Request: fold
Amino acid sequence: MNRKLYDKLIFDHSCPGRGGYDLPHRIYPDVKLPEDLLRTDTPALPEVDEPTVVRHYTNQSTNNFGVDTGFYPLGSCTMKYNPKINEALAANPAIAGLHPHQPADTVQGALQLYYMLQTMLSEIGGMGEFTLNPFAGAHGELTGLMVIHAYHDSRDDAARTKVIVPDSAHGTNPASAAVAGYEVVEVKSLPDGTVDLDDLRSKLDGTIAAVMLTNPNTVGMFERRIPEIAEAVHAAGALLYYDGANLNPMLGVARPGDMGFDVMHINLHKTFSTPHGGGGPGAGPVGVRKGLEEFLPNPRVVKTDDGRYDIITDSPSALGRISSWLGNYTVFIKAWAYILSLGANGVAKVGPLATLNANYVMHALRDLYLLPIEGPCKHEFVFDGLIDKSTGVTTLNIAKRLLDLGFHAPTIYFPLLFHESLMIEPTETESRETLDAFIAAMRRIAQEAAENPEIVKTAPHDTPARRPDDTEAALHPKVKFADL
Amino acid sequence: MALHKYLPHTDDSVRQMLEACGVASLDELYADVPAELRLKGKYALPEALAESEIAYAFDSLMRRNLPLVCFAGAGAYDHYTPAAIPAMLSRSEFATAYTPYQPEISQGTLQYIFEYQSMMCSLTGLDVSNASMYDGATATAEAMIMAVNSARKRRRVLVSATLNPATAAVVNTYARYHRIAVEVIPQKDGVTDRAELEMMLGAGDVAGVIVQTPNYRGLLEDLSGWADLIHAAKALLIINTPAIALASVKSQGEWGADIAVGDAQSLGMPLNYGGPYLGYMCTTNALMRKMPGRIVGATTDELGQRVFVLTLQAREQHIRRQKATSNICSNQGIMTLHAAIYMSLMGADGLREVNRISANAAHYLASELQNTGKMKLSNPSKPYLNEFTMTMTDPYTTGQLLDALKQRGILGGVAIDDREVIIAVTEKRTPQEINEYIETVINL
Reply:
């Protein structure tokens, strides 16, 4: 990463009369459209040549930090390596040119890949069937809750208006429940970070449609009472939803379907190595246990008796449609290639190695950083800041100092259970050397906090941009070039 | 031999690290997972393939597709992707980063999102853009929820019958679970029936009105006076337009809309069998804090440099949880980069040229198809850009038409039913391809 800020915007390069395009010459006569339906002004887009555009974005990219730049231990985001073969396949022109309205008989290969991935995810999740349509993890949550809604509707059970989420849940859980039309009820966590089963039982009644859990939860703890939880939820007539954000450590160990979950989503951009793309596009496939398949959204890809693949567009019991077509197709190609590269044995190694890496980092730092919850963690764990609180060094300071030392920061101030949460997720694609370097950096920061806290409190010192004025940004929003 | 090329651990490092953790085996790290839940045996998954084998398997699958020359639209358009775009998108500093939570080392992502927002505001003529919509259909559904949230108690949303049915289906799904009453404004001669709209508004309780132009049939809707009418009813006007068309047709801002939405796939994004595409959403300053999704704003850092940050986050799920404006948490980073680079390369002139060339070719094809006598424009008095709807003359059917074209390697359009077909033409379609289409129809 270039440590000097490249501070130009593409508009700064604009010069009237330049352009970065060429178009084929066509001989057809010009069409005259009614003036009153046409645009009167010229949109203020930059005028730039191709070399300038390419240089501009290349320079911009040098101020960015990605997984390919360095260690990215962002908790609950599973920033694993993004294999290059995945990208090469997804860029295939044979896919680039396929229109989503091509008839099924002309896209048999594309549908077969979709179906294969659907089937492989069902096996990994222990589910009956998957849809790949949802565009993101949060979209998967929403779709999963709509499945649950459609299920209760099919039983004319209209009294179920609430969804239970733990207080440690990802913010998307309650937000997705609200978008799906549910009221949110929070269930408490015990001091060990797991769900308070008594509190849960007291809240389970005929008004509860679903309970959303992630397992391991956001503090990296496995919900060991999950069989009892599932039993209680099912006894109350509700369904159990699995937030797949933390699926990675379960690969090779246990399947959500076997734990008693009815509906789940998977973040392909986390567990299945597709790139995060600066925030998207991802994909959030949704799986359901046997018996709930009919509620999955249209369109659905099915295999016919004669071995062909077909698209169902109008299943009446489906929850409806949550996407125009079959979702973020090129993301599926990448996840498919990843699973094939690891194979049955390799996929099973992912979870244990991710868990090993997290425990290794946790053990190496717990003498300096406050570990609020004991016991082997899974893929991630949470420190509640430094043990020595006398230095005044906060989690934010630690995060910013890590940037100076060449690492991306962990997730900070989440989960909300602790004041100084520092949530670390190493992933299985990091070597011991990388983890040791990160541990050394974290120990150095702890030492600096004791000996020279100012250097930590005023960090970062060696990044392209320094601490930005967030308050100013929110008070006087400047959200486009014309506002500058 | 290495464990796997993506997994750097060796047997030795695993052993040493287990020792450091004070456990004897990887299994011991899972002592808290009840035995009855543990995976029994092996996954029923294929055995590992070498990279060369994966590439071969993929190519074999792709050979089972039949590539067709694309005259289909209906929400996804076959515009050309300039080579500079994939070259920039593949820079892994962009591709392998996540949401820019740490602005100090994420200025690349933040800058291009800010550029994208600026360009979308120019294109739509509105004040503020987000960077988080998955596609045009979900963006339209989010706009509906935004309208209902802004309207407090009113829960009726009017949706034009000329909205793309896939978009309408997504809107209806979100509405069903969010308990919003969606009502369809009927169409008349292929465009929204304004008299019906007035009547429906008169019944009161309307939070928003959703209309698409160019509409599903490709026709330009005349929305003169709509904003006044709708605002008088205290409702919001939501206009859905494919992004590229905005360089030529009246923008949402010019029509007086409150929320602009649509799909940005038409900005040179590959068809990719349906995704990933990009939804866009812009709105007015008045509604900025009601908008879902990530927004990037400019500020200064402690050195006085102009820098960019995620801003107005108090709207979002990680802060507001169930009270957030939406559950959306991603921003569609790499797709907004695609859009920004496309608009940078093309400029306003380039976008208008693409529309002009596409529209000219479309009108030529439409008139030649009429001349065959086997099909005619469904709404001959209504203007269109590069997409139009035709009706088959008896006894011909759209099934027959599309089958005959498929034999010639052409995707002839999207059938509405047995009689009507929607045809789109882009700047990529050559005179040979267009002539082949016409000849096929002549020989029907």
